[in-house]
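Q: My labmate handed me this sequence with no annotations at all. I'd like to see what the chain might look like in three dimensions before we decide whether it's worth expressing. Could you predict it?
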Amino acid sequence: MARTSSGSARPKRGSYRPRSPLGFVGRFAAFVGASILAGALVAGVALPFVGGLGLSAKAASENFDDLPGDLDQPFLSQPSYILDSEGNQLAMVYDRYRILRNFDQIAPIMRQAIVAIEDSRFYEHGPIDLKGTLRALLRNQQSGGTGSKQGGSSLTQQYVKNIFVEEAGNDPAKVAKAQAQEVSRKIKELKYAIGLEQRLSKDEILTRYLNITFFGRQAYGVEAASQRYFSKHAADLTLPEAATLAGVVQAPSAYDPIGYPNAARDRRNVVLQRMAEVKVITQAEADTAKATELNLKTQPLPNGCITADQIDGAAFFCDYVERVVKNDPAFGANKDERDKMWREGGLRITTTLDRKAQKAAYTAATKGVLQKDPVADAVVMVEPGTGKIKAMAQSRPYGFGDYETTLNYSVDHNMGGSTYGFQTGSTFKPITAAAALENGMKVDQEYSTGYDIDMRKEKFRTCGESTRDPKYQPQNESRSETGTWNMQTALEKSINTYFVLLSKDVGLCPIATLADQMGVHQGNGEALKQVPSMTLGANTIAPMNMAAAYATFASRGVYCTPIAVTEVAKLDGTKLSVPQAGCKQVMKQSTADTINTLLKGVVEDGTGTQAGLKDRDNAGKTGTTNERKAAWFVGYTPNLSTAVWIGGAKNDVEMVDIKIAGTTYEKVYGGQVPGPIWKSAMSGALKGVDAPDFAAPPPGAIPAKPDPNKKPDDGKPNPRDQNRPPGGGSTRPPWPPWTPPVTPPTTPTTGGGGATKPPETPRPPGHTRPPSTGDIGGGDFGGF
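A: Here is what I predict for the chain of 784 residues:
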């Protein structure tokens, strides 16, 4: 370059220059170094006394010849854009903020400014400016190691160095190596620079340089810098603005226009003076520009999913999308490949998020439970028949402050959710009912029970051996809940004792198998534990998986893995494969139609009346766990399924005598707080949307309700079933042993990303280890 690193003018001819203490030897070493960099040394030439200076011309020349001459242009890291289902931006995410521009999209004055200050003879020399390099080496040698060093690299060499820095990514060791002040690095840069100059025009090299170089403040490339500091495109830069940006390149931190405006202005004026010296502008133009202020018009460069929180709390959905891309094999064979793709960016990711549904879910979530309440909530919506996640909201905003969280309560742990999920209470009962119907039982299956039943000696069949809980004595919510129930009335009133007896007759294995086929697994990704209290919601499950499971009922038995991404396109228009919902029939249509009718009764005449919608067919189920540490409502229409959970994020808040959203509750029930939240969210999301009806169940599937005053047998064993526990009676004989399927069902590993675990050695669901008894905290009652 023609100037020192500080930007001071070149000394005039005839002015005094101090001699280097090393004299001739030092200057000769500088000459040899410059010659090596220029490729001027002949291979095999020996300079004995150069060795004493630590330089080997022969070795340098041989290494030079061995280096490859071609250097591929890396994929320059750029922002990715996460879009909603209509193509509107939710968030911009990037590792490096850069917007690529063509030669004609960069103001000529900007191109002239960077050439003037960085390599004024750029259009005159080849890959190396031997004159400039020798001058820089001599001046650095004369400085005796004190003061700032003057650079001697051509713009082409600087571009090559920037490629190495770009490829180093965020690895500090690799970045340091790419920037090391070593002769070997200079030689490598030169060889690649020669190859580039043979293949590219000077204009092409300059354009690439302006697109890759760092301008500070997260701005990579001249377009990003123009937007960051002046809120305009690179094509519209003025002379003072162009000089300011050109001056930043040498030391982005030291000449930061925002942090150090005086230093930046001084540096800008150095650039302006240099432009005048090389006749790019007149001295008068330079003086006029020097007299101006920086006149910055800065704008932030928003980055990351946290910025999507202002869009009705969409940050959690955005975070989930990012995790899908980073975790799902559809986007790369291994984690390194997926991480690399995410860092490189340049993607347009179209998602399933519906803005209207998101607004409705967010409004309901934040009004139903306040940010600073002792509990939190989550609302997640899934479309039946497609698996599309339409909305994802919660009461606590995305962030790191008080009463904020980055924990996504709606999803599995590996997708950013809680460690285990949350106990579901009675919202699990419809799955038990569906398994019973699939295995030949009828809605008219009756059990007569008291307020509680003694199951301490009873064995429940699992997919392996049987299990029992020596402390298990489940009870109903109210002591008045005694009598005779069939499946319909037991679901409406959420009778725990009925469903415990039903699960014993059906067997835990068919229930666990169907649940698995409906996408229901523990929040930590493991299969459900097959324990006696399973039917009462003892397992910990993420809300999204419950919404997807209920969507299976809505779509007449078709389960679809939840998906968040519908399209991923690169900047050149290339489209990548995306995770698929893999929709499949997991139960008979008649089973789903019957469950839909039964659960309609819950919102019409059962525990979920506060949630019921008046303008369309809808169905659902309430759930409350032991000690009221979680309360749920999961419900659906034929075109939308929504799960609502409230509780302590760490499952540590008993919702008794508690104030939520300004109202004090003596006891929280699933239909009492989650129910109205569900109703509000669904009403907003479905406003103006068609209201189809559920398909009718088969004729005779729904019998007359039994006499609720029919008394239990007061503890006398039923002669038709000697295995029946005291306090209960069955109208059918025990089921024969259940045979598991040959191919075990698979469990989604991405929490909805669309990928599943590869088939393993067949094993029964839930038997990664023998189930323990009594190790689930909430299962004595399952909700109401």
